[in-house]
Structures are given as C-alpha cells and as structure tokens.
C-alpha cells in the first residue's frame, strides 16, 4: 500500500490523492514548522508516527444491494470493489426467430427449398423450445439507379422475361410477424416470389436495421431469445454507397415500415456496420448469417464486428438451412458473454469469469464457452473509479442476447467525515477559529497554523509580499507566511529549511564520492546549498587539495596564461591545456606587432605619436644586422617597405605588467622598392594606345578590302557566264538622212 502525495492542503486533498492515503485528524500531530501535509500518509505510517487509529480518516467502499437487479456502489477513488453476478442457462427459454431472406434473382432455387422446408423449420424450433415463434421478411435493394433498373416495365418485373412468377422490385418487406402457427408461416412463405436488381451487393443492412428497430411490428417478445436468420448469396451495401444514387441523408436508425414496406429505402443511405451492431446489441438480437460458400469470408469478417453472431455455409439450394440454424443456435446459446453499456473515461469495469468447465476469458468482457443447459456461470465484476465523479452515474451489466440486466449505480467518496467539534472558538486554535479535521480554520482577521497572528488593521498583501523573494513564490514554497515572517518547514530526516525566505538548506550541495562537500573525510561544510571549503581544499565539492604541482612548466604556473584550479590549468580563452603554452586560434605577432615595429624602429606609422603607450608590451627592442635562426616576420610599412623581424614570447600574456620580460623583438633592415619612372609609364601608355588604334584601323581596312575583292571576283565570274546574241531590235528604225561634216578629216 502506497500513498503518492501531491499538493495536499486538506483532508479532502489527501483522500483524492490515492486509494491508500489516510488523514490524521489528531490535534498536535504535526511538529513545529512541519507542514499540515504530514498528516497525509498510509495508515501504517501514521500509526508509526503516533496517530491513534480512531483519529485516522480513510473512507472505505460501500456496497448496497437495493433490489435483485440493482446495486449501488459508493467508491473511494482508485480503490476497486468486486462483486459477483450469476447466470444460469435454463431449458425451454422462449425463442423468437425471424427468417430474413434475400429474394434477388440468384436465390430462386433457395426460395423453392424454403417453401418445402417450412415444416422442418418449425420442428427444429420446437426441438429447441416449446415456446418458439417464427416470423418472415425479405429484401432485395434500393429501387433507384444504379442499384435497380428504374424503367417502369423493369420495376414491375425486374426478372428475366422467361420468369412467370416475379414480384416488383423492393428494398425490404416485412412479410409475417412472429407466430407460433405453422400453417400461417407456410402459407405466407408460399406466396413469396423472386425479384431482382442490377448490381451484386444487396440492401442487407437496410433490412437488418428495420428488423431490429421495428420491434412492435416484428413482434419481438420482451422475455425471449431473439434471433435473425439471414440467408443470402451475395455481399451487402454499406454507409456511403447511397451517394452513388444521389442519396445523401444518413441513416437515422429509426423504424419506417408503412404497409410492411421500408418507406425510406430510396431517401435514406444504408446504415453502417457499427450502427447495425449497436442496434442488434441494444435490442438483444443475435444474428445467424446463412450464406453460400463464396460469401463465407465476407460474413465472417462482419461477424467479428457484431457481438454474439454466427456464420453458417448454405448448400447450393439451401437444403441444409435447418441443420445450419440448429448448429448455430447451439453455438450461440452455449457461449455466455457478459458486458456493459458505455461508461465515462474515469470509471473502469473488468470481469473475471468462473466457468463451470474452467477456462474462459476476462477483461472488458467476460466469456464462458460450452455452457450447457442448467449450468450456473459466475462472473466477478470489478468496478474502479479512477477519480472523483461530479455526479452519480449508472450503467447496466448483463449477458449479450438476454434482455435481463443488472443496473449498477456509482458515486464516489471524496470528502472526509471528521466529526469535528462545533465550536468556532476552539482552544487549539487560540479561540480564533474552529478545528477542521485536525487543522485550524481561522476567523477572517486571524491567520497562522493555530490562528496565532492577528492581521486586523494590517495590509494582507504587504504581509505576503514580505515573505516573497524577488516577487517570487511565498517563502520559496518551503514554509508558511505568518504575519509577514516565513515559518520554514522541516525536511524529512530532522533538518529544516532556513533563511529569511526559507531559501537555504544544507542538503543539496555538490557531492564527491557520494558525500557532501568532499569524500569520506569532510573537506568543507554545506552552507545554504554551497560548499565552504577548508583552507587546504578547493573545488565545487571541496574535492581538490590545493596544489600547483601539475600546473608548472619551466618554473612558471600555466605559463602566466591561466590559473591553477584543482591542480589543473584553467587557461585563458584560446590557449590549450595542459600548460596554456599554445594558442592555435590567436593572431600571430607578425600581424599584431607590425605597427609597433614601425613606430619603435622608424618613428612612422599609425602609432608614431603614442608609441610608448601603444607598444608597452614590447619590453626589449633591438636593431640587428642578422636575424636569429628561424622564419622571420615579413611586413610592409606605410611606405610599402618590407620590414623583417623575429619575436620571442616568454611567460605571461601579451599585456604583461610586471618587470618580467614579456617579449624580445629583433629587427633586421628594411627593403624599400625603387620609385617607378613616371614619364616612361605615361609615354609608354600613350604609344601603346596609339599603336593599338593603328592596328585596329589596319585590321578594319584589311577586312573591307578582302570583302570588296571577294565581291569583284564573284561579279567577274558571273560576267563570264553570260552569253549574248546579235539580233536587231524590232523597234529600231534607220536614219532617213545622213549629214557629213565637210571639215572633218577623220583625225
């Protein structure tokens, strides 16, 4: 038994927190500074701490048997209550059997068999019980496209032309209500004729739904085993298929039989499998699906979703239907399944079967198989309320397929019955309040664990503010604010919180080797959540003896670039352990000291005016003719002259302020490039531009010349190819008069 406490401020909170939590109402049970939540624990723990048994409040479950078919439970949250129910299968219990037949055209031979098997069907029913009755119904499908041909002639006769006996298309028809008269049943069945539709699936679920919800029309008795025997050779339409015919209204699970015909067949969609299963269970109807071999798998899947149902395989002409019904009924009646209707999420019901032949299965339902006539079956029913209920609830328990049910009403016990003194001025509360389950409930002007503080004339909010650190939680959640002062709670183990706002305690310091503030030998003390180490020790848990032996290199500690903590170097950012000697990410002196070289060696550069201040980290500076071995730094000054120098960094950072040498710098000489010939550059540029322009002009001229030459040669070639013929122009007329110049000599 465990009491898992959460936020406990009252006896009621304690009772709600766990099934095994008890509350001690004994006065003076809590110690000074101890929270009232200490009153909440298991009964054994409270007794061990000195609480008298008569002062422990721990409500138990209450069970009332109000009448043979009704019980009342008053439950403690989390505490289960188990009771037993018994069921006995008796001989000769009334049976109502409704034969629901598919009359589509493919069932023609099956209809002929049923007409001839009417007497055998009644005899089989009489063999089961002397109080048996039988009814009959038939179905095909909705009389709308694409399920049925809506041609008027086809609606009247949906069968083949050769078929003489064919009734008009219909959805579901109730033919015969429950009757014990064999002759009436045979007469009505003999009147039935085959019908037809277009597609293979039938309106099976429509028919089952109407047979289940139209109880007064079908003739179901209140105290009987109700069975629907459905015979078919095809599958079934389900919810949503009606959209193919433009039927959008969902099935509302109500009865619509008018003149024994389902009147809403063409207006309402098919029901879902879930809707059918619910109505069959609500009306205590057990279906037997008598189907052909090709449909066995489909209807076995359907049977898995419908409790208390069976599947049998018909022969080609349904000759074996009587034996099938007898076998299926025996399987149904020999299996007892106990369950309940819907429950809220915070109430759980489980079953443990006590089957006469052993075995069975429990859980959310209880099942016993192979229960014979006269056998008594028992089930232990366990009811648990997980939390307090805001209202009483009721549900029913009973075997599937049987109308008789047990009504169970449940409420919860979440309040303490402490039988407190009625006085409002109890001495325990300094006569300024009354006792409520061992705690003081103070008057309006008094506060405190025992109403010892008067707040009359004081600002309550300012008193509470005085108990809050940085406007946070009152007394850090570790104490009670009494008259503006925190009264800190005790810690299990004998210690207590302390401090102005109960912010301190000496149990949560860092540990080393599972000991507070340092190993087996105490190296420090835990004070207000921090270790205060002895002079010889250091570290967050006082785990280190003070020493710098592992931090020394070349007689220096961490090369002056870090501190020694717990005998290990803690380096400046960038430098690497173990001795803070190298800094891979730092800029090299070649980059950082170049400007100082200019001002120290040549009195130039950006630091020339404050060289001594800007370059004080350079302690020794020498101009030399030859640099020491090694790769020197190579930088350029403001005049673009190359400067070569070497650096030697010793102990310390770059900004060292003691007399120790921080850095030696040796400077070689500078190499300055000669000044360029300005006139030569300008003249050369002009000549180059002129030469390039001339070359471009010559190139253009050459391209034009080559193009003209090519065109001329093409003209010459065309001219050579031309052939001319000497003929006289028919329009030409010779001159009629010729005049010669007498002075013309021909020269």
From TrEMBL:
Domain PSI: 2-52
Integrin beta subunit tail domain segment(s): 590-677
Listed Gene3D superfamilies: Cytochrome c1, transmembrane anchor, C-terminal, Laminin, ligand-binding face of the semaphorins, domain 2, ntegrin, alpha v. Chain A, domain 3, von Willebrand factor, type A domain
Source species of the chain: Esox lucius
Disulfide partners: 11-21, 14-51, 24-40, 159-166, 214-255, 355-368, 414-418, 437-475, 442-451, 453-467, 481-486, 483-517, 488-502, 504-509, 526-531, 528-558, 533-542, 544-551, 564-569, 566-611, 571-580, 583-586, 590-599, 596-672
Pfam families: EGF_integrin, Integrin_b_cyt, Integrin_beta, PSI_integrin
GO biological process, one term: integrin-mediated signaling pathway
Primary location recorded for the protein, binned into one broad class: membrane
The Integrin beta subunit cytoplasmic domain, residue ranges: 701-747
GO terms for MF: amyloid-beta binding; integrin binding; metal ion binding; protein kinase binding
PROSITE patterns given in the database record: I_EGF_1, I_EGF_2
GO CC field: cell surface; focal adhesion; integrin complex
Top-rank taxon, per record: Eukaryota
Record flagged with keyword DNA-binding: no
Keyword ATP-binding: no
Ranges of residues in domain Integrin beta subunit VWA: 10-416
Cell location: Cell membrane
SUPFAM superfamilies the UniProt entry points to: Integrin beta tail domain (SSF69687), Integrin domains (SSF69179), Plexin repeat (SSF103575), vWA-like (SSF53300)
Membrane-spanning intervals of the chain: 678-704
Designated name of the protein: Integrin beta
Keywords, in A-Z order: Calcium, Cell adhesion, Cell membrane, Disulfide bond, EGF-like domain, Glycoprotein, Integrin, Magnesium, Membrane, Metal-binding, Repeat, Signal, Transmembrane, Transmembrane helix
Recorded topology in the membrane: Single-pass type I membrane protein
Family under the similarity heading: Belongs to the integrin beta chain family.
């Amino acid at each position: 038994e465990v009491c898992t406490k959460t936020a406990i401020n009252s006896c009621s909170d304690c009772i709600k927190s766990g099934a095994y939590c008890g509350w001690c109402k004994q006065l003076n049970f809590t110690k000074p500074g101890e929270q009232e939540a200490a009153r909440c624990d298991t009964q054994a723990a409270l007794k061990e701490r000195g609480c008298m048994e008569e002062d422990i409040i721990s409500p138990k479950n209450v069970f009332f048997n109000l009448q043979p078919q009704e019980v009342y439970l008053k439950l403690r949250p989390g505490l289960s209550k188990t009771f037993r129910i018994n069921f006995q299968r008796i001989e000769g219990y009334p049976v109502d059997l409704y034969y629901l037949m598919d009359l589509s055209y493919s069932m023609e031979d099956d209809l002929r068999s049923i007409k001839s098997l009417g007497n055998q069907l009644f005899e089989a029913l009489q063999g089961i019980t002397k109080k048996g009755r039988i009814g009959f119904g038939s179905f095909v499908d909705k009389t709308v496209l694409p399920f049925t041909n809506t041609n008027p002639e086809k609606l009247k006769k949906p069968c083949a032309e050769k078929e003489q006996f064919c009734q008009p298309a219909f959805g579901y028809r109730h033919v015969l209500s429950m009757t014990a008269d064999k002759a009436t049943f045979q007469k009505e069945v003999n009147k039935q004729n085959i019908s037809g539709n277009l597609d293979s699936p039938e309106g099976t679920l429509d028919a089952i739904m109407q047979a289940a919800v139209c109880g007064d029309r079908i003739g179901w008795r209140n105290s009987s085993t109700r069975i629907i025997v459905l015979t078919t050779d095809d599958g079934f339409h389900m919810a949503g298929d009606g959209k193919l015919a433009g039927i959008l209204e969902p099935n509302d699970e109500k009865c619509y039989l008018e003149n024994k015909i389902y009147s809403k067949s063409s207006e309402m969609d098919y029901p879902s499998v879930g809707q059918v299963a619910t109505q069959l269970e609500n009306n205590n109807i057990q279906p037997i699906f008598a189907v052909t071999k090709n449909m066995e798998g489909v209807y076995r899947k359907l049977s898995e979703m419908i409790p208390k149902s069976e599947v049998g395989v018909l022969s080609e002409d349904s000759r074996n239907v009587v034996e099938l019904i007898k076998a299926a009924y025996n399987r149904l009646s020999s299996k007892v399944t106990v369950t309940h209707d819907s429950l809220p999420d915070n109430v759980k019901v489980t079953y443990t079967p006590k089957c006469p032949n052993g075995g069975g299965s429990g859980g959310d339902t209880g099942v016993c198989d192979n229960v014979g006539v006269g056998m008594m079956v028992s089930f232990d029913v366990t009811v648990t309320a997980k939390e307090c209920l805001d209202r009483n609830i009721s549900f029913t328990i009973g075997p599937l397929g049987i109308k008789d049910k047990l009504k169970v009403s449940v409420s919860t016990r979440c309040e303490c019955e402490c039988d407190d003194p009625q006085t409002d001025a109890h001495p325990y509360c300094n006569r300024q309040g009354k006792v409520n389950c061992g705690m003081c409930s103070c008057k309006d002007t008094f506060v405190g664990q025992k109403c010892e503080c008067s707040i009359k004339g004081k600002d309550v909010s300012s008193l509470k503010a005085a108990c809050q650190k940085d406007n946070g939680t009152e007394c850090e959640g570790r104490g009670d604010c009494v008259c503006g002062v925190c009264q800190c709670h005790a810690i299990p183990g004998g210690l207590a919180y302390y401090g102005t706002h109960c912010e301190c305690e000496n149990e949560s310091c860092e540990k080393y080797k599972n000991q507070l503030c340092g190993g087996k030998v105490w190296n420090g003390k835990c004070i207000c959540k921090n270790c205060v180490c002895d002079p010889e020790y250091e570290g967050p848990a006082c785990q280190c003896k003070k020493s710098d032996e592992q931090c020394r290199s070349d007689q220096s500690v961490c090369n002056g670039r870090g501190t020694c903590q717990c005998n290990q170097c803690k380096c400046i950012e960038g430098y690497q352990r173990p001795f803070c000697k190298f800094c891979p990410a730092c800029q090299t002196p070649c980059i950082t000291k170049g400007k100082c070289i200019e001002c120290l060696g040549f009195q130039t550069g950006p630091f020339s005016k404050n060289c001594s201040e800007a370059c004080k980290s350079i302690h020794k500076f020498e101009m030399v003719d030859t640099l020491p071995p090694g790769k020197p730094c190579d930088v350029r000054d403001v005049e673009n002259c190359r400067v070569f120098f070497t650096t030697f960094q010793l102990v310390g950072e770059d900004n060292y302020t003691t007399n120790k040498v921080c850095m030696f710098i040796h400077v070689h000489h500078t190499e300055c490039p000669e000044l360029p010939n300005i006139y030569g550059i300008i003249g050369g540029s002009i000549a180059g531009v002129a030469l390039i322009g001339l070359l471009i002009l010559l190139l253009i001229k050459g391209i034009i010349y080559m193009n003209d030459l090519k065109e001329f040669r093409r003209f010459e070639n065309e001219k050579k190819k031309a052939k001319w013929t000497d003929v006289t122009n028919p329009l030409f007329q010779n001159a009629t008069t010729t005049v010669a110049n007498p002075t013309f000599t021909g020269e």
